[in-house]
Design goal:
Number of strands: 9
CATH topology: UDP-N-acetylmuramoyl-L-alanine:D-glutamate ligase
CATH class: Alpha Beta
Structural class: alpha/beta
Strand order of the largest sheet: 3-2-1-4-5-6-7-8-9
Strand content: 15-25%
Shape: globular
Keywords: Kinase, Thiamine biosynthesis, Transferase
EC number: 2.7.1.49, 2.7.4.7
Radius of gyration: 17 Å
Number of helices: 8
Organism: Leuconostoc aquikimchii
CATH superfamily: Ribokinase
Largest sheet: 9 strands, mixed
CATH architecture: 3-Layer(aba) Sandwich
Helix content: 25-40%
Catalytic activity: 4-amino-5-hydroxymethyl-2-methylpyrimidine + ATP = 4-amino-2-methyl-5-(phosphooxymethyl)pyrimidine + ADP + H(+); 4-amino-2-methyl-5-(phosphooxymethyl)pyrimidine + ATP = 4-amino-2-methyl-5-(diphosphooxymethyl)pyrimidine + ADP
Distance between the termini: 32 Å
Bound molecules: pyridoxal-5'-phosphate
Number of domains: 1
Family: Belongs to the ThiD family.
C-alpha cells in the first residue's frame, strides 16, 4: 500500500519557463517519489534570459491556500522558495507557526541567476527573524549566507563561521552552498543540529543549464526527509540528484536553461 504521509508542500513563486520555483519543486518531488502540493505566493513572467515581471499574490489568498491544504492533506515536510516581500514572509511565518507541518526547509531565495531581485530588503530582516528560527534546514548560497549572517565570506573558515552564525540565529541545520563562484571544485558545507559537520566536494559542470538548481536541491532535501532519511543522508542524496540532473537534460531556451531529465 502507498504510504499516504509521503506528502510535501512547497510555498513559492511560479516561473513561466517551467524551470525554477514551484515547477522545479513539483518535478523534483515527483522524481523523488513523494506527492507535492503547492502554495503560490507570486507569479513571475520569466524565461531563461531573465525575469520580466513579478506579481505578488495578496496575503489573504496565500493564507487561504495554506489553510485549504492544512485542513485536508497529511504533510510531512514543507519548503519555502521565493517569498518576495515582507508581507508574504510574515504571512507565511504566521501560517507555519499555526500549522507546524514539521520538517521546514528554508531556501532563502534572494536573487535570480540573471540578476533579478526576488526578495526585498525589508523582507530579508523578516526572513531572518521570523523564518530562520522555524527552519529545520536553511540552504543559502554564499551571497545569501553573507546577507543573513552579516559576514563576508572568502575562505573555508569564513564559510564555517557563517554557518555557525546561521545556526545561532535559529536554523537547526545549515547547508551552505559553495557553487556560486567560478572555481572548478565546488565545496558545500553542512552543519548539522548535533554540531557535527561535513564538506561535500564536487566538480563544477561546464554548463549554462543551471536554472532552478537551488530550488531543486532544497526540494530534494524536503522529499528525502519525507522518505525518512536522516539529515546527512538527505543532503547527500539531494546533492547527488542535482548533480545528475545538471549532467543530463536538453537545452531549453537561449539562456540559463532549466534542469531537466530529458536526455
Ligand atoms: N524564479 C523563481 C520563482 C524562483 O523561485 C527562483 C529560485 O528560487 C528563481 C526564479 C531563480 O532561479 P535561478 O537563480 O536558479 O535561475
Amino acid at each position: 500500500m502507498v504510504n499516504d504521509t509521503l506528502q510535501v508542500l512547497t510555498i513559492a513563486g511560479t516561473d513561466s519557463s517551467g524551470g525554477a520555483g514551484v515547477s522545479a519543486d513539483l518535478k523534483t518531488f515527483m522524481a523523488q517519489g513523494v506527492y507535492g502540493a503547492n502554495v503560490i505566493v507570486s507569479v513571475t513572467a520569466q524565461n531563461t534570459l531573465g525575469v520580466q515581471s513579478v506579481q505578488m499574490i495578496p496575503s489573504e489568498v496565500i493564507t487561504q491556500q495554506i489553510q485549504s491544504i492544512a485542513e485536508d492533506l497529511s504533510l510531512s515536510a514543507v519548503k519555502t522558495g521565493m517569498l518576495g516581500d515582507v508581507q508574504t514572509v510574515n504571512t507565511v511565518a504566521k501560517a507555519l507557526k499555526k500549522y507546524n507541518f514539521g520538517n521546514y526547509i528554508l531556501d532563502p531565495v534572494m536573487v535570480a541567476k540573471g540578476g533579478a531581485k526576488l526578495l526585498s530588503d525589508k523582507a530579508i530582516l523578516a526572513l531572518k527573524t521570523q523564518l530562520l528560527p522555524l527552519a529545520v534546514m536553511v540552504t543559502p548560497n554564499i551571497p545569501e549566507a553573507e546577507v543573513l549572517s552579516g559576514m563576508t565570506i572568502q575562505t573555508h573558515e569564513d564559510i564555517m563561521a557563517a554557518a555557525y552564525q546561521l545556526q545561532l540565529l535559529g536554523a537547526k541545520n545549515v547547508l551552505l552552498k559553495g557553487g556560486h563562484g567560478k572555481e572548478l571544485t565546488v565545496y558545500d558545507f553542512a552543519l548539522l543540529a548535533d554540531g557535527s559537520h561535513f564538506w561535500l566536494k564536487s566538480q563544477r559542470v561546464d554548463t549554462e543549464r543551471t536554472h532552478g538548481t537551488g530550488d531543486t536541491l532544497s526540494a530534494a532535501i524536503a522529499a528525502q526527509r519525507v522518505l525518512g532519511c536522516d539529515m546527512k543522508t538527505a543532503i547527500i542524496k539531494a546533492k547527488a540528484y542535482v548533480d545528475a540532473t545538471i549532467r543530463s537534460g536538453i537545452q531549453v531556451g537561449h539562456g540559463h536553461g532549466p534542469l531537466n531529465h530529458l536526455a
